[in-house]
Amino acid sequence: MVCGWHIPVSATVVLQIYVILTEALRGVHPVQYALLSDKNRSIYDRLFDMVKETVPEANSRSISCDFQMAAFSERTAFPGVRLHGCFFHLAPNMRRPPVFLIEMWSMYRRVVDGDNHINNFSEAAHRRLKAELGMAHLAIWKLIYSLRKVQHATDLFYEQLVANHQPLKQLKKYRESDKRIVQIARQYNDRDSITYLQGLAHNYD
After folding, report:
1. What are phi and psi of 86, to 5 degrees?
2. Fewest C-beta in 10 Å: which of 24, 97, 137, 177?
3. Number of neighbours of residue 178 by Cβ within 10 angstroms
4. Calpha distance 145→117 (Å, rounded)
5. Domain residue spans in the chain?
């Protein structure tokens, strides 16, 4: 398991869908959908207990998640895990004062180590699910039908990877931009702060 994110909904008793994704065969795949009625710590504790019950061998080394404090029970459920905030959720909040440790929200090490590709798969999965749901107020049967439809497409993609097909590439301009960002990040000690930040800003779309 490498990433979790949520989509707010208002389907009767369901407040949000929390999606668990895992990295396998050069792709990131949604593997569990949790229909949650609240966002408190006890709900998240129960969620991750159930993840461990259904997948006893789950022993993630790294988890990316949104910045909900309650969700940090992931660290308790998976001792020793490296817990990261997801850039997908960090970007809209850049101007807010940080309320987490730098190691939680900094993307530097992940970029330098080449782990930032996970965000691309996660964001694509997030967009597909939001597009399929289409509206905020869904009847529970419509919600379940939509999740099954999305998962069917995900299963087909996974089987293509099993057959050794190549995953779809990013657009060339994004691949080149990602390469430049990695190069700039590795120049952290060689640039002054202004040109370092300017270089990253020029490549962030």
Report:
1. -90, 130
2. 97
3. 17
4. 30
5. 2-168, 169-204
Contact (Cβ atoms closer than 8 angstroms) between residue 161 and residue 27: yes
The two tokens of residue 129 are 């699910």
Question: Taking a C-beta distance cutoff of 8 angstroms, is the pair 47, 171 a contact?
Answer: no
* Distance (Å, whole) CA 178 – CA 172: 10
Q: Is 49 helix (H, G, I), strand (E, B) or coil?
A: helix
Residue with tokens 């730098």: 102
pLDDT tens, residue by residue, 73-115: 666 777 777 777 666 666 666 777 777 777 777 778 878 887 7
131-159 pLDDT, tens digit per residue, is: 777 655 667 778 888 888 888 988 999 99
Cα(31)–Cα(1) distance, rounded to whole angstroms? Answer: 9
What is the DSSP-derived secondary structure letter of residue 169? P
31: nearest Cα among 155, 145, 123: 155
Token pair 């089987």 in the structure block, residue:
159
CA triplet 80, 83, 85: central angle to 5 degrees? 175
